[in-house]
Amino acid sequence: MHLNINMETKEEILRIIDLLNDTYESEEVWFGNSLVESLRDVTPKLAERRLSTNTHSIAEIVYHLTTWRIFAVRKLQGDKEFDITTKDKDWKKFPVVDDFEWEALQMELSLSQEELITELQKLTDDSFLETYVPGRDYSYHTLVHGVMHHDIYHGGQIGLIKKALKTMPNEEDELDSFGDGNKYGADSDYY
Questions:
Q1: pTM beyond cutoff 0.70
Q2: Which end of the chain is more exposed for a tag (fewer CB within 10 A), N or C?
Q3: How confident is the model at residue 166 (pLDDT cuts 50, 70, 90)?
């Protein structure tokens, strides 16, 4: 399907900006929670936890979302060489997430959103959206819609992770419930 975009206006760009902002931070999106809403009550401890050893933490997902926003920004700025070529650039590991780290990750995500919107606002007409992203086989239209789809997908993933982690015992809570390490508890007569 090919979109019929009026090349003399920036109506489509303005619609995309509205959709990007809604998907990112609206309190009333039709599909559920925006990304910011999904992250609202995530603590640093919750952000670092995993459902299992082969899943990503919320902190890693936030880093991943930021990375791909930066990719979109750099491409919109005309950077032909920029790419995400290593796993660490795409899915960085965060074994421990303290208050500072969690705040920094969220701030970087917020700044990357602002940069993305700023770059789109600089565009003068919708025709740019039909040009291809350097080094890719898709248009800028596909790229910026992809950012929205990416937010929705990972926002839902974050919601599921939060729900599951809140029902699972935290390792520290589990250890605390056994007191001094005795499997029957610290006050037990079974030594």
A1: yes
A2: N
A3: confident
Q: Determine the Cα–Cα distance for residues 27 and 37; give it in Å rounded to an integer.
A: 7
Residue among 22, 16, 47 at smallest CA distance from 35: 22
Residue linked to tokens 């959103």 = 113
Q: Which amino acid is at 137?
A: D
Return the closest-CA partner of residue 65 out of 110, 104, 130. 110
CA-nearest of 42, 40, 93, 38 to 64 is 93
pLDDT of residue 88: 82
Residue type at 48 in one-letter notation: E
Residue-range domains of the chain with CATH: 16-168 (1.20.120.450)
Please give the angle made by the CA atoms of 71, 75 and 76, to the nearest 5 degrees: 115
Percent of the chain with pLDDT over 70: 85
Cα–Cα distance measured from residue 151 to residue 11, given in angstroms and rounded to the nearest whole number:
22
